[in-house]
Structures are given as structure tokens and as C-alpha cells.
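Progress report, Aim 2. The chain analyzed during this reporting quarter is listed below.
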Amino acid sequence: MTMFLRWCALPILILSAYPAAALDQPVVWRDEDTGCAYLLTPQGGISPRHRRDGTLDCPDVAAGTGVVENMGRDVARGLDALQREIERLRERYNRP
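Predicted C-alpha cells for the chain:
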């Protein structure tokens, strides 16, 4: 019985992966007016294409203005403000 299940499991696994393999990859399309790149799916979907740093793939977007860089800078500012507030409260409550 277990040998039968093993022989049946392999074709079932292969057939279950078949629909995912049938999906076509999106195509990159660049707008002639703006120069921005978009991803087009064979099913009719469209979405803006992003670079590795998180910025839009457009010629007018500078490469150094990454979303991740801005987020890191904002988090660092928030942590600095939190640390200053903790120091202020520590001094306030440690006064005799």
C-alpha cells in the first residue's frame, strides 16, 4: 500500500505545479512620452516598474532618492528624538 502511495504522490506533485509554470512572465514596456517603465502582464494588468533601491524606473527620478534611504533617515531621526525625550524624563525624575 505504501509503495502505491509513493507512485501516486509523484505525479500528483508534478501536476499540481503545472498551473504555476503556465503563467507568462510580465513584459517591460516604456512609455514614449514620460520614459517611465511599466510591467505588462498577458492577462492585461499594468504596474509601475521599480528599481532595486525602490524608486520608480523613470528618467527624471534621481537614483540616490531611494525609498529605503529616506525611510532609514526618518527612523534614525525618530530614534534620536526618542533618546532625547528619555534623557529629559530621566533628568526630570532624578531631581531631588
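The chain has a mean pLDDT of 77. Strands lie at 27-30, 37-40, 46-48. These observations will guide the mutagenesis work planned for the next reporting period.
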